User: Fold this.
Amino acid sequence: MLHLLVDTSTWLDLCKRRDGQRWIVALRLLVQQQDVKLLVPELVIEEFERNRERVESSMTATIAQRFKLIKQDLNDYGGSGIEHAGEVIADLARDVPLIGAMTTRNFGEVLELLQAGHQLAPTDDEYRAVVERGLRKRAPLHRSRNSVADALLIELYATAVRNSDLTRNPHAFITSNSDDFSTIGGDKRQPHPDFADTFASEGSSYALDVDGLNSTLLAHFGEEIEELFAETYFEEEPRRLGEITDAEKALFDRIWHHRTLQHEYRLRAAGDEVELERLRAVARPARERVESTLHTARRSSAPTPTSNSACSTASSRHCAGCSAANGTSSTHDVTLSEFRMIFVAAVSISVKRFTLPDGCDRMRVELRSAGTPEDTVVAVPAR
Assistant:
């Protein structure tokens, strides 16, 4: 089982990343499967909760400030012809709250991981080791700042390493604080020499930031972690305002179109030809616009017919052979709009497939609905 002690700085960096769910979900599953154990000192949870609100607010504020500065630069130095660029920036700025909400949810899930991890409580031995480290000016107490919490963190990790069988339970210490923990003036991915002995044994490793966490998981699990990433992570793209308003308009049009067809059917059933002609005259332009968009969408997604026996007269009204094949005098000769209207209102649908003597493949569709004759039967081409 892989034991991970992840510093608060790395957890915060992970939360700030838009793709943070890639590792958060994977770690949660690995912990549940007992393939990973998270070593969580109490001070990590305290630091995380103390810094959470500040980091969350700074994320949204930083993005909003960038858009504001870009817009100001366009106005000051863009000259003529920048209207489109300004509209794009304004559109992106509207997405800031949604992007922030998608990212800040990482904080709640990380906190759950920390609270469910294996808690490490410091003992007198760790406290004495921290004091000795401070007296000797050894990292991470080698700088002119208060790094007692960092020193306690590395001492807790050192104790965990000493008390564990590293061949069976490898350990890894992961941090984003390269100033206190990494080599000075060298490769930041290497630990500071003052506690290099803690990572000298095989099975104890040091890694830097979220990329280091990723490398540690890859080194231990190999292709298994790659498959887990592929199965559990997907990137959510927030809908932009323009996409939302376009979808809203399309939904409105389709509801209106359906209601006008229902109204037309009721007028036809009542025999009110005068009102029927008035409705058609008023609704025709808008219907044609809506139907053109529906037909375009259907053509782009409709499968290619696999049979050459389809009836060529099915584009508007069904052929006489279809009606004859139904074996019933109540079959209606309908337009596609009328068929659509009846189909949407149907409460009972029966479909049977048959072939005419001339090889014309057909489906018999029986539709029964409130407000339509009970014997309504429509024959349509089989696809």
Q: What stands out?
A: Strands lie at 2-6, 36-41, 118-120, 171-175, 204-208, 348-355, 361-368, 377-381. Residues 42-77 form the longest helix (36 residues). The first strand starts at residue 2 and ends at 6. The chain has a mean pLDDT of 77.
